[in-house]
Amino acid sequence: MTFDDETVMAYVDGELEPPARVALEAAMACDPQLLRRVEAQRALRARLQRACAPLLEEPVPERLLDAARGPRAPAAVPPLPRARPPVRRWSWPQWSAIAASLVVGALLGPPLLHPPDGSVTARDGRLLATGALAQALSRQLVSTQAPNAAVRIGLSFRRRDGAYCRSFLLRAPSPLAGVACREQDAWRMQVLSGALPGPAVGDYRPAAAAMPAAVTGTVDALIAGEPLDAAAEAAARGRAWSQ
Amino acid sequence: MPPPAELHAQLVALLPRLRRFARSLTRNVHDADDLVQLAIERALARAAQLQANAPLAGWMYGIVRNAWLDEVRARERRQRLLTPDVGDSLAGRVSGPTDAEQLAVQEALASLPEEQRSAVALVLIEGLSYKEAAYALGVPVGTLTSRLARGRGALQRLLGEPGPQA
């Protein structure tokens, strides 16, 4: 099945209706070429937002505040609220505020101070995590990750062959969820899905745990035993996720 | 329309985003602020037209953009600047982009035809849905998406958007 550019753009903009979205996500998981097109559109969107985000931080001239407050009693108006984030989606203002916080910076390192343009790449026929996603998979612990971290690790577990795997949710520039397993010193994707944040996906689950069914199903299929607890996870990280 | 106090508070909250959008239209800080001020004045004068549950942001973006189109037409007629105080424009540059990446992106945006630039700015930068952006621009959604697609294609050519391998 082929997808034209407007369909890929609509997907990246969060505008694709469920049947087409599901079809595209399914195709994306096994079509690196399509995934590259999606990633290129995501990267452009992220790049524009990144370049224009600082404009929101500029002080608003008093004359505009006066005009907006209207002629009466400016003192009665509360102090300037922060700009509302753009509708519906993980937005650049939120992202930049989080990236600017030292917690995320210290936890994940400088590359996450820029949004993950290319979080997944195809190499030798395998889909591998790159950039900020790869770093989060290698470094971030479920027990200590910031609740609003750009990449959320869902859970860590061992596959039947002993390899370590982790489910993740990437929020920016567009939601992407998946499961990656450590193979030959890289994080190889087992499944990828464009996830909707919050209760829009599986509203019976807590928002923070909202993973698409494709991801939870893959975890169920791969996992041997129970997910790693905090101590086992920290120990695995200490061994660089080697078996 | 919303109660006046609420409307004013919402307008104040929208100011940073309106200024950013205006900047993508005018490229000049002072012109952008003049444009936002004009739009606020027009909006308050027409507030009675705003229905209680209408999207204020989309309505305001539309007013800013129409004010800009009016201004462009007026400039073509009289061939002078919105801000007569030309000496001021240097101060505007100081707070313009200093970062090479910001400059490159803004140059690329500025080179797009106005219709594509407005569509790109509203959807990709301001985060509006297609429906909201189409409402702000007063066009059908299909028109918006084709402008958006053309604008994106041009930006990718201009910016040499690196693939995921980069």
Verbal overview:
The complex is a heterodimer of chains A (243) and B (166). Chain A has one domain. Chain A is built from ten helices and six strands. Chain A has helices spanning 5-12, 18-30, 32-52, 54-57, 62-69, 92-100, 102-108, 131-139, 213-222, 230-238, and strands at residues 120-123, 126-129, 151-158, 164-170, 176-183, 186-193. In chain A, helix 1 packs across helix 3. The longest helix of chain A is centred in the N-terminal third of the chain and has 21 residues, at 32-52. The two termini of chain A are 39 Å apart. In chain A, 43% of the residues are buried. Chain B has helices at 4-26, 29-45, 56-78, 89-94, 100-110, 114-125, 130-137, 141-159. Chain B is built from eight helices and no strands.
Q: What is the CA-based Rg of chain B, rounded? A: 17 Å
Mean pLDDT figure of chain B: 82
What separation lies between the terminal Cα atoms of chain B?
Answer: 50 Å
Largest interface: A-B, 56 and 56 residues
Largest sheet of chain B: none
From the alpha carbons, calculate the radius of gyration of chain A and give it in angstroms.
20 Å
| Beta-strand segment tally of chain B | 0
Number of strands of chain A: 6
- The global form of chain A is globular
What proportion strand of chain B? under 5%
**Quaternary structure classification:** heterodimer
* Unreliable segments of 5+ consecutive residues of chain B: 81-95
